[in-house]
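Example record for the data management plan.
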Amino acid sequence: MVRTRTVWQKAGRFFSAVVVLCFFLPFFGISCEGVELVTISGADMVGGCKPGGAINDLAEEGKGQIQGGSIDAKIPPVDREPLAIAAMALAVIAFALAWSRARHALLGTALVAVVALGLLMTLFVRERAKMKREASTYGDAGGKNEVMGEKVEVDAGSRYGLWLTCAGLLGIAVVTGMAWREPALPDPPPPPPDWVPPPPPPA
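Corresponding structural encoding:
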């Protein structure tokens, strides 16, 4: 039977690296009729970068037209979010611990992943309400409203990047926790000596 600890030692560093890369995927966004107007990744919230989305693309192209209407397409940079910074830092720590073969590193990785997961859940609760307020610029989030002379449906909330990151952190916590609980293997017996003296002759 394959031990969980062996699996983690072989694949843990790659899996934890993927979780860190998930922070560059969209965490939150505002969409209108299926078009992503604003997308904010975890890395945007860490570095205070400019969000993506159709509005930002139009602003860079010098246009301000969406579905036949005109809007102010200037989007300010995202405010740095301490929860996102702490969560990404913990994910990087988990990646570093994945290179260690010590048993205590497994417990440390599990604890770090659990704390990072809790931070992201807190971030989700806070940002969901904030995104819905920002969506009121284009209409009531989740409902159909008259925007730019047309009835459109606006949606604001979390995106797939947030949930992939949370799933990855949960997987890290479960696997490393199981590996830590496994009993340690007994030490192998010492190798036999190269030469064994013959028994003494009978008296």
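Summary line stored alongside the record: Strands lie at 26-32, 35-41, 65-66, 69-70, 144-147, 150-158.
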